[in-house]
Design brief:
Blueprint lengths: L3 H11 L12 E4 L8 E5 L4 H10 L3 E4 L16 H8 L2 E4 L2 H5 L5 H8 L3 E5 L7 E9 L1 H11 L6 E2 L6 E7 L7 H6 L4 E4 L4 H9 L3 E4 L2 H6 L2 H11 L4 E4 L11
Parallel strand pairs: 2-3, 2-11, 3-4, 8-9, 9-10
Antiparallel strand pairs: 1-4, 5-6, 6-8, 7-10
Helix pairs in contact: 2-3
Length: 252
């Protein structure tokens, strides 16, 4: 019988929960490590719709990237995902910055693989920023087209300040502030989910082509590979990606 603890310990082997940032909240945040698991639902976030989906398909566990409990919580209302998960007896296991930072398998390694990049590894100066290489010199439009196709996006926002891309910095999600480290590393391009205006101007002035995927698209890329990895480790458990969760953003 596979338990939540078994899955937790396996994930801890390649994305140690102790490596999460101090401000983060990771691990089993709702439920019981000793609970048996026959089916698990994976989602970037745990919303009411995701909890309902888990309950409907008979999943005892939800594995998410973003924590279901984050920051101070002063009340748990009946309409909250935390209350719903507890009421249905569903355990919630959350792997956030520890999964971002994993050099073995994580959000940024999955993003690099989707982009067709090689040699992805954390920067020696900063383990939040990852550095990877292209297999051949790419123009910004070529890399944007590849990201659009492989991430199933309606379009990719990007700049063209370096027309010969070989070295790429990656920081998924709200990783725009890592543009400064990318510049120090001599990156030709930078891929992230979100970037602030002044950070983008710095990238432009530094001659770095920037690719802005949106928070959801830059991180959801890890969910299917994570389900596949867990399925290989626990073949007796059915790991399913959520069919209801998205950020609701469309492109026309």
């Amino acid at each position: 019988m596979t338990t939540v603890r078994d899955i937790y310990e396996y994930m801890d082997s390649f994305a140690p929960f102790a490596s999460a940032e101090e401000w983060d909240n990771v691990g089993v945040l709702v439920g019981d490590k000793g609970a048996p698991v026959t089916k698990a639902l994976l989602s970037l976030d745990i919303t009411n719709e995701v909890v309902s989906e888990a309950n409907e398909i008979g999943a005892e566990l939800i594995i998410s990237h973003h924590p279901i409990i984050f920051g101070g919580i002063k009340r748990v209302e009946a309409s909250s995902p935390v209350y719903m998960a507890a009421r249905f007896g569903i355990t919630c296991l959350c792997a956030h910055t520890n999964l971002d930072k994993s050099p073995v398998f994580g959000v940024n390694t999955a993003l690099a693989e989707a982009a067709g990049l090689t040699g992805c590894a954390p920067s020696e100066k900063n383990d939040i920023l990852f550095i990877a290489k292209t297999t051949e010199t790419l123009a910004p439009g070529d890399l944007a087209a590849r990201l659009k196709k492989r991430l199933h996006m309606g379009g990719v926002a990007f700049t063209e300040y370096n027309m010969e891309i070989n070295k790429v910095g990656l920081c998924s999600g709200a990783g725009g502030s890592e543009i400064y480290s990318a510049a120090e590393e001599g990156c030709d391009a930078f891929i992230t989910g979100e970037i602030k205006h002044h950070e983008l101007l710095f990238a432009n002035a530094s001659g770095i082509s920037t690719f802005i995927l949106g928070h959801y698209k830059s991180e959801d890329v890890v969910i299917s590979p994570l389900a596949k990895r867990l399925s290989a480790a626990f073949p007796e458990v059915d790991f399913v990606k959520s069919g209801v969760f998205s950020d609701g953003v469309g492109v026309i």
